[in-house]
Each structure stands twice: as structure tokens, then as C-alpha cells.
């Protein structure tokens, strides 16, 4: 995992004209451990983490140990439960098909309804 820390450490030194990256470890072929993700979340230009892991205990641990990090649900079927545990929103597939509906679902979830 040190290679990821070093990689993002170097990226964080660059000044981009746009908001920095969102890490989505569940889609990159490996599962980064929670400790590494928390360390990565401290980098200035990291906007957030798209959590796509099917590992509920890992997701829970990440949300509990990193409450100030923007964590977004990466799977539509887990979005509501992740928001209930502290995720800040969703990067969604269904929103491309039903944007108004999904916006309402996420908005209500964020309001605690």
C-alpha cells in the first residue's frame, strides 16, 4: 500500500486548475485497506472516496474512522444504507436513467427520511 501513498503524495504536490481526484478503490482491481484510505484522505487535493466494496464491515469501519472525509456510495443498492451510516452521497448508475427520482431518493436519505 506504500506505493499508493507515495503515488498520491506526489500528485498532491501538483497544483491542478480543477478539484482533485476521487479515489475509487473498489473499481481499481485491488481493495485498499482502511488505514491506507484514511491516510490518503488527508492529502489536500483528494476530494473524496467512492466506496464500492461489498465488504460491509470495511465500509462501516471507513465511515466510523473517517467522518470528515467525503465518502460516496459507489453502488446504488447500498447508497441509502451508506448514507444512513455517514456517507455524503452517491456516484450512481441509475441517476443516468432516472435523475429526478434518484436525486429525490438521495436528498431524502441525506435528510434522514
Distance between the termini: 38 Å
Indicate the structural class: alpha/beta
**Which assembly state applies to the chains in this document?**
single chain
Helix content: 40-55%
List strands and helices in order, with pairings.
Layout: H1 2-12, E1 22-23, H2 34-41, E2 48-51, H3 56-65, E3 71-73, H4 79-85, E4 89-90, H5 94-97, H6 99-110
What features would you describe in this structure?
By secondary structure, the protein is of the alpha/beta class. The protein is built from six helices and four strands. The protein has a four-stranded parallel sheet with strand order 1-2-3-4. Strand 3 (71-73), helix 4 and strand 4 form a beta-alpha-beta unit. The longest helix has 12 residues, at 99-110. The model has no long low-confidence stretch (mean pLDDT 86).
